[in-house]
């Protein structure tokens, strides 16, 4: 049985639009119980502990990571030999977070917290060599990403299966139209989803 572990990004949550669209798609095809979307702690060490626990329970889930979640997913995929689909992933975020130190607020929960040097150090601990297997790691990028420079990810993940779309934004516009490709990558039988239209999600 295929399980999907969705890993949200920085100051995000399972209430984000992509997460809700994926959840609705899995419900529509009757596989909602095979989707796992933990609300992650803001500190990388605690977030990774949460994710390691879920992986230990599920065995070999397919990872779907967005933004900072893509960075987490890369580490976990390399550590456990898991397949990972990364959406506008952060590349070496510890090298770019100095300007973000200080007060933060989760966009969905409203939780406030402080981004510290310890957060940055914890992110650095998760750095891994760039993945080299296009069958294991697929990366979706949009050139209009206003938060992260897509070129950094295109270079870092150049040995992986890359999809680079012109325009778009950091949230990855048109994500719902790409859901069949996500389900196919996850190994879910096309009989479960090929008759469904996800464009209205």
Sheet-strand content, in percent, reads: 15-25%
Secondary-structure arrangement, i.e. CATH architecture: 3-Layer(aba) Sandwich
Please give the radius of gyration in angstroms. 16 Å
Instruction: Spell out the CATH superfamily.
Output: Alpha/Beta hydrolase fold, catalytic domain
CATH class: Alpha Beta
Parts with pLDDT < 50 across at least 5 consecutive residues: none
Distance between the termini: 25 Å
Per DSSP, the total helix count is 6
Q: Residue share in helices? A: 25-40%
Order of helices and strands: EHEHEHEEEHEHEH
Biggest β-sheet: count, sense, barrel? 6 strands, parallel
Instruction: Name the shape in a single word.
Output: globular
**Count of strand segments:** 8
| Alpha-beta classification | alpha/beta
Domain module tally: 1
Mean pLDDT: 95
Widest sheet: strand ordering: 2-1-3-4-7-8
Q: Indicate the CATH topology.
A: Rossmann fold
Task: Describe this entry's structure for a reader.
This protein is an alpha/beta fold. It has one domain: Alpha/Beta hydrolase fold, catalytic domain (Rossmann fold). Helices cover 31% and strands 17% of the residues. The strands form 2 sheets. It has a 6-stranded parallel sheet with strand order 2-1-3-4-7-8, sandwiched between helices. Strands 5-6 form a two-stranded antiparallel sheet. Helix 3 links the parallel strand 3 and strand 4 (84-87). The relative contact order is 0.17.
């Amino acid at each position: 049985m295929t399980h999907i572990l969705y890993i949200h990004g920085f100051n995000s949550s399972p209430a984000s639009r992509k997460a809700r669209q994926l959840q609705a798609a899995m419900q529509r095809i009757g596989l909602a119980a095979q989707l796992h979307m933990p609300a992650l702690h803001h500190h990388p060490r605690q977030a990774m502990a949460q994710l390691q626990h879920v992986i230990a329970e599920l065995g070999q889930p397919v990872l779907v990571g967005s933004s900072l979640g893509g960075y987490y997913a890369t580490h976990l995929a390399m550590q456990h030999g898991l397949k990972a689909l990364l959406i506008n992933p952060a590349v070496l975020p510890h090298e770019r977070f100095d300007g973000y130190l200080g007060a933060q607020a989760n966009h969905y929960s409203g939780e406030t917290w402080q981004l510290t040097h310890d957060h940055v150090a914890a992110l650095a601990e998760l750095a891994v060599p760039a993945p080299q297997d296009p069958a294991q790691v697929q990366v979706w990028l949009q050139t209009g990403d206003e938060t992260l420079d897509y070129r950094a990810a295109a270079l870092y993940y150049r040995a992986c299966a890359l999809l680079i779309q012109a325009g778009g934004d950091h949230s990855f516009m048109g994500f719902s139209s790409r859901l069949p490709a996500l389900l196919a990558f996850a190994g879910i039988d096309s009989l479960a989803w090929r008759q469904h239209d996800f464009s209205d999600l």
